[in-house]
Amino acid sequence: MALTSSARDYINRILQDISGMKVLILDSQTVSIVSVVYSQSELLQKEVFLVELVDSISKSSEPMSHLKAIYFLRPTSENIQYMRRQLASPRFGEYHLFFSNILKDHHIHLLADSDEQEVVQQVQEYYADFVAIDPYHFTFHIPSNYIYMLPAVVDPSALQRFSDRVVEGLAAVFLTLKRRPVIRYQRTSDIAKRIAHEASKLMYQEESGLFDFRRMEVSPLLLVIDRRDDPVTPLLNQWTYQAMVHELIGIQDNKVDVKSIGKFPKDQEEVVLSSEQDSFFKANMYENFGDIGMNIKRLVDEFQQVAKSNQNIQTVEDMAKFVDNYPEYRKMHGNVTKHVTLVTEMSKIVEERKLMSVSQTEQELACNGGQGAAFEAVTNLLNNESISDMDRLRLVMLYALRYEKESPVQLMQLFNKLASRSAKYKPGVNLNCCLSS
């Protein structure tokens, strides 16, 4: 798969085919879709001088007829209503409408009826209805999506909206890849079955013409599985670079907020971790934490050699060479600073929270036998003041998953001890509460 380049190609085509000064108008979801594949400086190069959200631009009436408006929105009823109101009283010289997924026929008629002043130049579908984190991974940014996997009764309309969003996003992925998949699902999961059946209905019946691509020797497989089938993995601390940054510091749309780590200039309080833009991260994102330390040292050594050579400026030719290489030098300096900062902070967190000891016990609970030894190890860690509340909860949950039937009395002792350490954890804590992670 090449999801990042495909999404970027869509945005490229939207921006480069429209000349002149432009305003790019997005919604709360397409802003993430664009931001992971396009930087602010790149937007400026495409003559995009203003980026606005569709709901906030509706509140303004200032005319900007010198700008061409490019809308890139999800084809939702809410966004169509925003567009209808804005077309009724147009502020921009031209309107170019792009939607990130399949546009319903009645939505097209509504837009046409609203364009009384004939300012709309084009309406197109560009299937980038997913956030391409990297070439092989994407997300739909559905808040609290774990709720729909719990065995509790949920609001049917909310469940339908969740299912629709997943199916629409999957359709966009396969339209982007120009593939129609064979669909399989986990038989024991109602929500997996629902999504699989609705995706099949969309791709093979309702919009079969859109998915009528050239047949491949081996068809791609869309496998829909339920997170509940593996409750253990989300409870384990991670030890590869990308996963640790996500777990210990936090990544959102390939951006890491480092304000809490230390004092940085305002323009450096957020750093980008993207395998498409950062060769060191691409090479090390799945490396173990121990190897990262050695690789960071090599990166620092390489930068010191470059910095040393730049200090030996003795001639005009040397100066000209330095000026030519200065952007690359600055980029390298920023990369080194970024990775050293992140690894230093994570090392500090690992030490403060005693994550080596915690992780060792987690692995023993997940993989090895010995209920008595496990109970003693978990009890000792619950008594350790350095262990965070979240790590305590994870340990007890792992113990419960492994030994709930074998030692219910000791499990209740751990629940009580957990509750005594933190008031928010009551005896008999609901184990489902952690599935949100």
Question: Secondary-structure map with pairings?
Answer:
Blueprint: H1 3-16, E1 22-26, H2 30-35, H3 40-45, E2 48-53, H4 54-57, E3 64-73, H5 77-88, E4 92-99, H6 105-114, E5 120-125, E6 131-134, E7 137-139, H7 156-177, E8 182-185, H8 190-206, E9 221-224, H9 241-249, E10 255-257, E11 270-272, H10 279-284, H11 289-311, H12 316-352, H13 355-367, H14 371-382, H15 389-403, H16 408-421
Parallel strand pairs: 1-2, 1-3, 3-4, 4-5, 8-9
Antiparallel strand pairs: 6-7, 10-11
Helix pairs in contact: 5-6, 7-8, 9-12, 11-12, 13-14, 13-15, 14-15, 14-16, 15-16
Protein name: Vacuolar protein sorting-associated protein
Subcellular location: Endomembrane system
Keywords: Membrane, Protein transport, Transport
Task: Write up this protein.
The structure is a single chain. Helices cover 50% and strands 13% of the residues. It has helices at residues 3-16, 30-35, 40-45, 54-57, 77-88, 105-114, 156-177, 190-206, 241-249, 279-284, 289-311, 316-352, 355-367, 371-382, 389-403, 408-421, and strands at 22-26, 48-53, 64-73, 92-99, 120-125, 131-134, 137-139, 182-185, 221-224, 255-257, 270-272. By secondary structure, the protein is of the alpha/beta class. The strands form 4 sheets. A 5-stranded parallel β-sheet has the order 2-1-3-4-5. The longest helix is centred in the C-terminal third of the chain and has 37 residues, at 316-352. The radius of gyration is 26 Å and the shape is globular. It has 4 domains: 3-131, Sec1/Munc18 (SM) protein, domain 1 (Rossmann fold, 3-Layer(aba) Sandwich); 142-229, no CATH class; 241-353, Sec1/Munc18 (SM) protein, domain 3a (Syntaxin Binding Protein 1, Chain A, domain 2, Alpha-Beta Complex); 359-421. It is a peripheral membrane protein. Belongs to the STXBP/unc-18/SEC1 family. This is Vacuolar protein sorting-associated protein.
